[in-house]
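Escalated from tier 1: nicotinamide-adenine-dinucleotide holo job.
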Amino acid sequence: MKITKICCIGAGYVGGPTMAVIAQKCPHIQVTVVDLNQERIAAWNDQDVKNIPIYEPGLAEVVGEARGRNLFFSTDVDKAIDEAQVIFISVNTPTKTYGKGKGMAADLKYIELCARQIARVAKEDKIVVEKSTLPVRTAEAIKSILDNTGNGVQFQILSNPEFLAEGTAVSDLLDPDRILIGGDESVEGQKAINALVSVYANWVAADKILTTNVWSSELSKLTANAFLAQRISSINAMSELCEKTGADVNQVAKAIGMDSRIGSKFLKASVGFGGSCFQKDILNLVYIAKSYGLNEVADYWEQVIIMNDYQKRRFSNKIVQTLYNTVSGKKITFLGWAFKKDTNDTRESAAIYVADDLMSEQAQIVVFDPKVSEKKILADLDYLETRTLDQNKALIAAVEDPYEGCKGAHAIAVLTEWDEFKEYDWQRIYDGMQKPAFIFDGRNILNGQELKNIGFIYQAIGS
Ligand code: NAD
Ligand code: UGA
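Tier 2 regenerated the structure:
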């Protein structure tokens, strides 16, 4: 089958960038990204491409090139489904907040709504691609809905999980480590796989396109995220031992990372991992393992989350203890709120939990993040339901200028590893702060020796 029209349901952090790159690399394919969220679609269509709803280095340029040529953003979901041969489902799959599996399982209601809508609208055979991260064997449920509520047309379900990381989405998409496509082992299934392979083959080398059965593909995505997060929890566990023993976690990470079997990436100790996916996907994995009665498997992976929660709490406790066991009424300036640098995404950011702890101790928090607004910060805290909106407003505010934000502060806490923090005039910041002036570097990005020479009391993670 020759693919000429693709539709993607979900114009979020995955759907938007992924489809923009497909459109850029495949000018012969018309790509339409649809979403129920009108505001989000309007932002994707904003005349000034700088106002697209997601900040990713290089993304505005890709969208600018393809938009209006063969890349379209729309709220007309039915029309896009009807016209496309291939439909990607890239909607959110959050942790369930109610009922069976609450707090653990993935909530698949948005996936099911998409499946039912595709079934209702499709009048010709379609390939349906799972782009969202899904529990293993979800394709079975999607197939059952499509086959039982459809118009008698044939559907092939493929699993094509996305491995991009935020902040590097465009380069990850342009030069992926691999593309994974899982499909049915039947002749029809193999045809569908080949059709999708031919799309990626426009820019990805053949030896990087891996095809498997559907279940392996679905489970590989959860496994990859679990392994990545596990490395961070492992190094973070060692960071506390380093602090007790005089070892330095950066040196330990370098020493073990030079072992080619371990590898050097993803060994940066931190205040804890954030982001919309690691926690959600591991909880989902734990839930799946438990549902098969595999309690040891479940406990093993759950420990990654337990360690991460501990690391966030440990950071806020350390701030309180170091500031003479009280932060009540003290000004603490956060540098960074996003869950990592080069993104405006704050979902599950460690900063939210550290702020919440310190606010419960009545600290006055001031936040500077180059890409995150006060509105977003307040919404993130509101979601925790620890305090009312007004109570939060009394304890936290955002500033546009980092120097202004640090003035009069008792302490600075680095929560996100934005490059610009390294370039600040730290003498100027020191001069404006209360003394002794403390810095808690939750990302180990600042030059500790230089800061100590200025007069700061500097504390990093794991040394
Ligand atoms: P997101 O919340 O940014 O975007 C999802 C979009 O889907 C929203 O805009 C929502 O309005 C829309 N939507 C939901 N139901 C819809 C429906 N029935 N019809 C039309 N639109 C609908 O989520 P995201 O970060 O893009 O993640 C999407 C999926 O991709 C998740 O399963 C996630 O685990 C996975 N994933 C995310 C990343 C990442 O970096 N964020 C990376 C790899 C995989
Ligand atoms: C992660 C994976 O890296 C992607 O492959 C995957 O597609 C994605 O999840 C997903 O499924 O959503 P992402 O969460 O965007 O991507 O970003 P990461 O670079 O993985 O960082 C996650 C968190 O871990 C961040 O808070 C980051 O600061 C932290 N981290 C990362 C560390 O604390 N130390 C490290 O060494 C690396």
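The chain is about 45% helix and 15% strand.
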